[in-house]
Write a structure and sequence with these properties.
- The chain has one domain: Glutaredoxin (3-Layer(aba) Sandwich).
- 41% of the residues lie in helices and 19% in strands.
- It contains 4 helices and 5 strands, in the order H-E-H-H-E-E-E-H-E.
- A 5-stranded mixed β-sheet has the order 2-1-3-4-5, covered by helices on one side.
- Strand 3 and strand 4 form a beta hairpin.
- Helix 3 packs across helix 4.
Length: 127
């Protein structure tokens, strides 16, 4: 086994700190991927993977991604809800890879609602 360098230890420390912060609720954004039966049939698992891929590429560690059951809008699946502190939650529907990656980059990472893709804002909150 190779010896760990100081840089390796710093990297490991930061990774663990980020994981602990997410577990303790110290996150900037919460993304809920609606994964009821209808959502799964419409491709919600792929949507979850696209979001995680974009977050990993950007090195973002202050976003928590979670799942839920059906949101009651089966005909509009797959869908996600994006919640940021001190702003109304935003629900995005009829998602595909291109839309999801754009929402992840512009809203989840960048903090700016993608208005032309948003379905509704302010209908629910966890804060």
């Amino acid at each position: 086994m190779p010896r760990l360098t100081v840089e390796d230890l710093k990297r490991i420390k930061e990774e663990q700190k980020a994981k602990r912060a997410l577990r303790e609720g110290a996150y900037r954004v919460k993304v809920t991927v609606h994964m009821g039966t209808c959502g799964l049939a419409a491709g919600a698992r792929d949507i979850l993977n696209y979001i995680m891929d974009e977050l990993n590429r950007a090195g973002v560690t202050d976003v928590v991604v979670t799942t839920s059951g059906c949101a009651g809008l089966c005909s509009r699946e797959p869908m996600i809800t994006v919640e940021m502190l001190n702003t109304p939650p935003v629900k995005y529907c009829d998602l595909n890879e291109e839309k999801t990656r754009r929402i992840t980059r512009e809203h989840i990472i960048g903090g700016k609602v993608v208005e032309d893709l948003a379905f509704v804002a302010g209908c629910e909150t966890s804060y």
